[in-house]
Amino acid sequence: MNHNEASALKKPSAVTFVQVLMYFTAVINVVNGFLSFGSTGLFKKTLCIAMILVGCAAVYVAARLNKPSESNRRAAIVLSGILIAFRIVEFAVWYDIGFLMGMILPVFVIWRLNRSEARSWFR
Predict the structure, then answer these.
(1) How far apart are CA 117 and CA 109, in angstroms?
(2) Mind telling me which residue stretches traverse the membrane in this protein (predicted)?
(3) How far apart are the C-alpha atoms of 103 and 21, rounded to whole Å?
(4) Mean pLDDT, the chain, as a whole number?
(5) How confident is the model at residue 6 (pLDDT cuts 50, 70, 90)?
(6) Is 67 left (phi over 0), alpha (psi -120 to 50) or beta?
């Protein structure tokens, strides 16, 4: 294996950064889900369960980013889009600005995965 092949196999820092953000997002979702589960109403409890499930999905997607596959990159972008929509729904239900602030992480994930450094590694 020559130097060019070895450097092509090395995961870019942008991908590692995205993985860290995805894991952080997962922790936030799971913790928020458990903390908000005491809310009254069936819709709010269902939303809390969905928060926990989306957090688990974020862990799975972040773990898949270790392999350079275009489908893994697309899965992370789709999940980030779902997270953005989910944060808007959470804000509409609980009227907590913290949920809207949680949209920053998925936006960073999409931004970093669309950079040329990350795109070239996933191809």
Answers:
(1) 13
(2) 12-31, 43-63, 97-114
(3) 12
(4) 88
(5) very low
(6) beta
